[in-house]
């Protein structure tokens, strides 16, 4: 299920978080014309470009297949547009190709080489039965741990603590 240049590709068609995605690459000619238009409108065009991501993508970028895209225009089920960066990272051994992905609303979508489309990254234990935890009581080896940490990110919750004097000053000025 590849992608044509004119139609958006749908992701999660059966889910509640259905998305339509299109790929874009920077086009220098369009970028120069858009900068000229911003100058001629004394910057007022920037207001429109901030509100309407689809117009911004049309003015600065050229549509391309998703596998070659540097920017991705995402339209959610409510009709809201999001502009996301297509990123690459290496997961696993050095000989494996880089993994392409983008993140939208804190959900990571990974490029699937076989189907030529982005798919939502599944939980690391999505296809694992509880019995498999008992079969391997020592846990994962370090290579698997490193691969999963690269793929899913670090397993921690970051909590920022404000200093006590900051909280006291905030309460004093609130009175």
From TrEMBL:
Broadest EC class assigned to this enzyme: translocase
Domain P5B-type ATPase N-terminal: 17-90
Catalysed reaction, written as an equation: ATP + H2O = ADP + phosphate + H(+)
Keyword presence, Transmembrane: yes
GO molecular function: ATP binding; ATPase-coupled monoatomic cation transmembrane transporter activity; metal ion binding; P-type transmembrane transporter activity; polyamine transmembrane transporter activity
Keyword Acyltransferase: no
Membrane topology term: Multi-pass membrane protein
InterPro entries: P-type_TPase_V (IPR006544), P5A-ATPase_N (IPR047819)
Organism listed in the record: Daphnia magna
Major localization class: membrane
Membrane-spanning residues: 31-51
Protein name: Cation-transporting ATPase
Family membership: Belongs to the cation transport ATPase (P-type) (TC 3.A.3) family. Type V subfamily.
Subcellular location: Membrane
């Amino acid at each position: 299920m590849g992608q044509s240049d004119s139609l958006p590709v749908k992701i999660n068609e059966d889910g509640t978080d259905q998305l339509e995605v299109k790929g874009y690459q920077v086009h220098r000619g369009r970028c120069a014309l858009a900068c000229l238009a911003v100058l001629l409108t004394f910057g007022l065009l920037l207001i429109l470009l901030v509100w309407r991501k689809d117009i911004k993508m049309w003015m600065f970028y050229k549509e391309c297949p998703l596998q070659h895209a540097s920017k991705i225009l995402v339209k959610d089920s409510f009709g809201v547009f999001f502009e996301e960066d297509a990123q690459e990272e290496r997961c696993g051994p050095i000989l494996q190709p880089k993994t392409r992905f983008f993140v939208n609303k804190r959900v990571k979508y990974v490029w699937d080489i076989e189907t030529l489309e982005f798919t939502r990254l599944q939980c690391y234990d999505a296809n694992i039965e509880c019995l498999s935890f008992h079969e391997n009581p020592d846990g994962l080896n370090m290579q698997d741990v490193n691969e999963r940490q690269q793929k899913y990110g670090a397993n921690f919750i970051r909590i920022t603590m404000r200093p006590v004097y900051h909280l006291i000053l905030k309460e004093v000025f609130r009175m």
